[in-house]
Design a protein that fits this description.
Radius of gyration: 16 Å
Number of helices: 6
Strand content: 25-35%
CATH architecture: Alpha-Beta Complex
Distance between the termini: 46 Å
CATH superfamily: Nucleoside Triphosphate Pyrophosphohydrolase
Number of domains: 1
Order of helices and strands: EEHEEEHEHEEHHH
Largest sheet: 6 strands, mixed
Length: 187
């Protein structure tokens, strides 16, 4: 089965409790700046506590060249978060979720976490990411949360979602205080 064009994909719209209340085309969701649609995202972490953080390809229409979560994307209408993650991992990293160990970290929401969509976040433990889709990412780094924080402090471009994920799940309180100072100084 061939996927429709990305902009024509139907996305489920959800209420504040993540219950489906309708559908819209992806292009309409983004044109209207809606935040009540779903994403499935994952972070890959190795045994050293480093996160695999890719840089979005420079031709991308949204946040080109920014650091991003390890893999993920839109949940199309009728698809579960896990099904979307399975699809995105195959498309972006050529990985099969069925043979990977993973855990669900939780649901992040626009109204509670200040992000642009409802995001089910997963974590995958893995020592190596041997390949990635060059249409999605142009490079990637293994970074500790502290190294990530230093890169942000040096002006690295990072999307709100990745920044919130690292703040909520991977940084300690003292490091978060430093991040708040950096955000304040950058306006």
């Amino acid at each position: 089965m061939q996927r429709q064009s990305l902009e024509e994909e139907l996305l489920d719209l959800v209420d504040l409790n993540d219950r489906v209340i309708g559908q819209k085309k992806r292009s309409e969701v983004h044109a209207e700046n809606l935040t009540n649609y779903r994403l499935a995202e994952c972070v890959i972490v190795n045994s050293k506590g480093q996160l695999w953080i890719p840089r979005r390809a420079l031709h991308k229409g949204y946040l080109p060249g920014y650091f991003d979560t390890s893999a993920g994307g839109h949940v199309v209408s009728g698809e579960s978060y896990e099904q979307a993650l399975r699809r995105e991992l195959k498309e972006e990293l050529f990985l099969d979720l069925d043979v990977l160990g993973y855990r669900q970290l939780g649901l992040l929401t626009p109204h509670e976490h200040g992000i642009g969509a409802f995001v089910m976040l997963y974590e995958i433990k893995r020592e190596v990411v041997s390949s990635y889709n060059k249409a999605d990412f142009c490079e990637a780094f293994w970074l500790t949360p502290q190294q990530f924080l230093a890169r942000v402090h040096q002006g690295e471009q990072v999307g709100t979602l990745l920044q919130r994920v690292i703040e909520l799940f991977y940084l300690k309180k003292r490091e978060l205080e430093t991040l708040v100072v950096v955000k304040f100084q950058r306006g």
